[in-house]
Backbone:
């Protein structure tokens, strides 16, 4: 299963990288720069075909890729810009256009994908904004929710002035605002109360957290085939009401009641009739039960409305990603918060595999949604003003425009070498974190 997830992830990342390199390729051709090779993947090409002046390649390692432009590796060529068709023979403005095109295509790809999703319409599986205090599970700690006066069963209906009907709407604001007091409004058994909660910074992820789980009624939505629950005869729609005679009111109760028991007596309600069944736990997967969630379908939008929605969602993701990037400089555990290509590949594949396991439509939607997110992340990363990255190249060419002459090859060489060292260090750091992540899967 892990191999299948990695394979799906590689396909997904290959698409995103292809779009990025396609942007560089088309921009280079547009401004008159000759392209010698266009490759998806790194390493020795396992497939290659020359069409016109361009050799198209498929590299041995499918994560990554490149667009090889004539003279782009010749730093000394900056001093001799008379070579027609070479990268450094083009004006700095044209080189900036080529560098910008890759990240821009990633952003446009995200807009296109999200527009298609909103144009077709899709199902959303979520939970209500009703909460369970984490301190009921982790009794040794208190959390911001406890200090603010929240209670299990409260329904959060507004955070920082934004209406919140579902849990992901609450999370979106809390995650991005660690250490910032947030006004919230809750519904407590029909009584509206206003409070102030200050999310803690979760140093393992860089996100804000207040110490709550979100309420889910213990109603079975799906059962994994051949699982403990399936063998015992439980069915979707059954409501779990007790474990070993302990009353169950929500799914957190269920998980706590299951701990430490090899055999459990499960009380459940089906069609108004209460029944019990003894189940032997063969693993710690919660008997193979997936809980029922709140499901609603978004309407299929017209092409103009879908395009507007796709652009809005892409902009929203872009701004959230930029804000999340800033959280990395606040003392978080970078091995947990920073993902490298291995972990990203696994995550893309994992999202796709789990969604495809439920339905083809849900799988395609989840994969497309995640690819849009990764594409925007790739856009942001490549625009960082670091040597070797597109953003670093743009800095060099902008300096060249201001000075009205190229920088010396020595300065550029030092700049690029520094960049290679930085990027290599980051990649090794991310790879270490990825290995630690996969070792826990």
Residues:
């Amino acid at each position: 299963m892990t191999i299948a997830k990695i394979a799906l992830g590689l396909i997904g990342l290959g698409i995103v990288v292809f779009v990025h390199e396609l942007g560089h390729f088309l921009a280079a051709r547009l401004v008159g720069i000759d392209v010698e090779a266009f490759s998806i993947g790194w390493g020795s090409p396992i497939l290659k075909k020359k069409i016109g002046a361009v050799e198209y390649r498929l590299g041995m390692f499918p994560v990554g890729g490149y667009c090889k432009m004539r003279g782009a590796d010749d730093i000394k060529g900056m001093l001799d810009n008379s070579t027609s068709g070479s990268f450094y023979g083009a004006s700095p403005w044209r080189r900036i256009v080529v560098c910008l095109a890759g990240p821009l295509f990633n952003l446009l790809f995200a807009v296109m994908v999200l527009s298609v999703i909103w144009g077709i319409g899709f199902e959303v599986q979520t939970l209500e904004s009703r909460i369970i205090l984490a301190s009921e599970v982790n009794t040794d700690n208190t959390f911001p929710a406890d200090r603010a006066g929240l209670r299990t069963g409260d329904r959060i209906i507004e955070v920082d002035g934004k209406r919140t009907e579902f849990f992901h709407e609450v999370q979106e604001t809390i995650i991005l605002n660690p250490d910032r007091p947030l006004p919230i409004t809750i519904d407590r058994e029909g009584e509206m109360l206003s409070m102030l909660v200050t999310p803690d910074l979760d140093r393992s992820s860089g996100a804000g957290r207040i110490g709550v789980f979100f309420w889910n009624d213990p109603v079975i939505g799906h059962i994994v085939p051949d699982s403990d629950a399936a063998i015992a005869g439980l069915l979707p729609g059954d409501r779990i009401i007790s474990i070993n005679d302990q009353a169950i009111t929500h799914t957190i109760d269920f998980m706590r009641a299951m701990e430490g028991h090899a055999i459990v007596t499960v009380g459940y309600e089906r069609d108004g009739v209460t029944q019990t069944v003894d189940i032997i736990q063969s693993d710690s997967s919660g008997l193979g039960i997936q809980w029922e969630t709140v499901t609603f379908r978004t309407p299929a939008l017209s092409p103009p409305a879908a395009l507007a929605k796709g652009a809005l969602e892409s902009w929203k993701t872009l701004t959230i990603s930029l804000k999340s990037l800033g959280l990395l400089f606040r003392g978080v555990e970078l091995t947990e918060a920073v993902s490298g290509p291995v972990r990203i590949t696994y995550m893309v594949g994992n999202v796709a595999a789990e969604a495809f396991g439920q339905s083809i439509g849900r799988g395609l939607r989840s994969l497309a949604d995640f690819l849009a997110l990764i594409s925007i992340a790739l856009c942001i990363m490549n625009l960082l003003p670091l040597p070797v990255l597109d953003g670093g190249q743009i800095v060099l060419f902008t300096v060249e425009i201001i000075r009205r002459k190229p920088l010396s090859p020595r300065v550029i060489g030092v700049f690029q070498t520094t960049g290679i060292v930085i990027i290599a260090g980051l990649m090794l750091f991310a790879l270490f974190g990825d290995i630690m992540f996969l070792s826990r899967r």
Observations:
- Residues 220-292 form a domain with the Pdz3 Domain fold (CATH 2.30.42.10).
- The chain has three domains: 2-121+372-439, 123-216+293-297, 220-292.
- DSSP finds twelve helices and 18 strands in the chain.
